[in-house]
Amino acid sequence: MPGGSAVGWPKRALDTPALIVDLDVLDRNVARMSATFRRAGVDWRPHTKGVKVPALAHRLLAAGAIGVTCAKVSEAEVMAAAGIRDILIANEIIGAGKVRRLAHLCSQADVVVAVDSPMGVAQLAQAARLAGTAPRVVVEVDLGMERCGVPPGQAVVTLAEHVARSAPLRFAGVMGWEGQTVAIPDPATKREAIAAAVERLTDSAARCRAAGLPVSIVSCGGTGTYQTSAALPGVTEVQAGGGIFGDVYYRDHFHVDHECALTVLATVISRPTPSMIVTDAGFKALSSQQGTPEPLGLSPGQVAAVQLSAEHGRVRLHRPDTTIGIGDHLEFVAGYSDSTVMLHDVLYAARAGVVQAAWPIAGRGKFQ
Q1: For 275-316, what is each residue's pLDDT tens digit?
Q2: 3-state SS string for 19-85
Q3: Disulfide engineering: 228 pairs with which of 75, 194, 302, 311, CB 3.0-4.6 Å?
Q4: What fold, for 11-18+258-360?
C-alpha cells in the first residue's frame, strides 16, 4: 500500500498479515440476527468479547441492539469510553481493585453485573457505597454448563433477596448461558436441549417475581443458540454477538449457517515444494484454537492440512499445484473470531474489495 491511510485502497494493497471484515457479509449477518430478535420481540445485547471494536458495537446499536455485553470490567471501560451507555458484564467481578473500577464505571454508564455468591454481592455493595453509585445486578443461574452460576430455583431467589437487601445495589433479574447445547448436531434434539436449559432460567425468574422481586432482565443466548432461545417464552434479551462475523467454528461446531465475514490476508513467502504453500501468517495472526483457518481460492478437497507456527502458516496440498506463487496473496477465513480478533491491532473494513475504514481494536488485551 502506498503511504498514508489504507482507506480507499484495494484490500490487496494492505501489508500482511491483515485482519479484514467484509462489510457486505457483515451487514447481512447483522440484519439476519436483528430481524430474528425483532420478530421474537426480545432485546438484543450483543456480546463484544470477540468483537472488541467500539465502531462495530455502534453499528449494532444502529441495527437495533439496546446495549452490549462484555466479559470483563476493562472491556466495559472501553465501550463506555466510546459512548455506549447500557452495558452488561456477564461475569462475576471479584477483587477489591476490580469492583472499585466497576463501581466508578457506573458514573459513566448504566452497568449491569452478574453475581453468584454472597461474597460477590458484599464486595460490589461496599465498592458502590464508597463510589456513590448504584450498579444493577443480575443473578447468574447455572443452566447446565457447570461453570459459573447458582443452581436454578430457590437458590436464585435466596441470592436475589440478598442483592435486594444490599443497598445501593439494584436487583435487575437473572442471566445464564446454555452453552452445553451448542454442539448438539441434530436440530430437533438441540432445540429441545436449549428449551430445557432456558426453562431453568425463566422458572427461576418466575420464582423471584413470586417472592416480590422485580425482574426486568432475563438474559441468555449466544450465537450457537439464538435462533431458538430468542423465541422461548420469558426471555427478555439475547447476548449473541460473534455471529456477526461468522467463522469456521460457528459453522462446523455450533452448526450456525452464517456467512463468514472475517478473514486474514497473508502473503506467500515460500513454495518449498509444489505441494506446500508457506505464508507470513502464523499463530500470531491466525488462531487455530477451536477452528482451523480455511484458505480461500483452494477447494477443500485440495487442502490436506493447515499448520501454524509462530510466524509461518503452512498449507499442505493433496496434490501439486503451482498456480499460487511467491509474493501472491492467500486469504484465510478465521477459524474462530474470538481467538483471532484479539491477535490484531487494527480491523480493516472492506466493501467490494476496497478498504472503507481502519478500526483500532480497542478491546484487545482487556482481560482484567
Answers
A1: 999 999 999 999 998 999 999 999 878 999 999 999 999 999
A2: EEEEHHHHHHHHHHHHHHHHHHCCEECCECCCCCCHHHHHHHHHCCCCCEEECCHHHHHHHHHCCCC
A3: 194
A4: Lyase, Ornithine Decarboxylase; Chain A, domain 1 (2.40.37)
